[in-house]
DNA sequence: GGCAACTGGTTTCATTTGAAACTATATGTT
DNA sequence: AACATATAGTTTCAAATGAAACCAGTTGCC
């Protein structure tokens, strides 16, 4: 370890500090952490802001929670999913998925059918209403995304996705 | 609208699907959304995974919640912050900040001092214990971050931060 | 000085959350 | 066939959350 400045951190000028960070030698004064330079924090904060802004669209305009939106979106992408699968995709726990499904079914936006082979699983489908809602919601969500992305060039966007994919891979690597 | 494919979406090959998405013409069939290509979702999911992995470090090893960690980290970066300021930085609501502070004070990791000018505000400081904890925790957090970032080149890392900054700017722009 | 409007921080309360218990079905093992 | 083990999905329960009420102090205005 001890190897902090791997990535030059560009703005290594910690604004207005003795900048005597980077451990390594002996530490008499405690290490400081600039959260603005700490990727997990930055990323989280950005994602959070985006989520929140976006959830205003499907929350206020459509009365849909984030969990519900995710279920619907997955169903729009691929029909015949089970609660389990949705849970895996969205990384929401069983309970949350279950509740979202109940709520959506309550509003007849989705419908369930029992699997014939396995009585425990139930396949989920969009109803007409669900599809109708999505055909309003999805374009709006995309339009919003486009506005957000308008600030990026195609290359920047491409690179961003690629970098994120790398991080995801590394993450699964680290997780084990 | 209707202008989806602004950014060429590179891996347009949705793994194992008819890939017949991207609307554009007339829609008789409802639009489908591939969450895997939807930045808000991707970003959120990535940030979430990172947060969760990292929180294992300060959660399990140090018994610290995310909120508490954020408060501590900000205090490590700049002493003499108020609850208000921390709330602004971290975008956590008053209540959450207040609770984190209480918990941290309970464990004597931080200390408060009343402001002389304004009896309502109280400045927060790390205690010796708090500093001690951070001088263990911060290096570990950084080490973990380094492992995660090991997969990126310096340029990729730089670009990532730059792109994120752009998105953040755009977001504040859109928010108003 | 006194009154209204405001602000920093805490508390309350109803809602949301997630872990663990539970139900019902399925699979494997003897 | 009987029994243990596993799995899909639901429910329960205690803890975390956030909006709004609240308290204490401050500022502005007459």
From TrEMBL, chains A, B:
Region (Disordered): 1-31
A Pfam family it matches: MarR_2
Keywords: DNA-binding, Transcription, Transcription regulation
Protein name (record): DNA-binding transcriptional regulator, MarR family
Record flagged with keyword Ribonucleoprotein: no
Segments traversing the membrane: none
Molecular function GO labels: DNA binding; DNA-binding transcription factor activity
Domain HTH marR-type: 36-169
InterPro entries the UniProt entry points to: HTH_MarR-typ, Metal_resp_HTH_trans_reg, WH-like_DNA-bd_sf, WH_DNA-bd_sf
Superkingdom assignment: Bacteria
């Amino acid at each position: 370890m001890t190897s902090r400045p791997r990535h030059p951190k560009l703005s290594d000028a910690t604004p207005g500090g003795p900048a005597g960070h980077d451990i390594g030698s002996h530490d008499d004064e405690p290490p400081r952490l600039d959260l603005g330079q700490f990727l997990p924090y930055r990323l989280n904060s950005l994602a959070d802001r985006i989520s929140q802004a976006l959830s205003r669209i499907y929350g206020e305009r459509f009365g849909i929670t984030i969990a519900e939106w995710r279920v619907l979106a997955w169903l729009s992408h691929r029909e015949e999913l089970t609660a389990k699968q949705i849970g895996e995709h969205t990384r929401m726990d069983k309970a949350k998925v279950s509740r979202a499904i109940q709520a959506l079914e309550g509003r007849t936006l989705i419908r369930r059918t029992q699997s014939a082979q396995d009585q425990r699983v139930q396949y989920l489908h969009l109803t007409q209403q669900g599809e109708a809602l999505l055909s309003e919601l999805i374009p709006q969500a995309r339009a919003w995304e486009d506005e957000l992305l308008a600030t990026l060039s195609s290359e920047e966007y491409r690179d961003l996705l690629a970098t994120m994919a790398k991080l995801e891979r590394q993450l699964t690597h680290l997780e084990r």
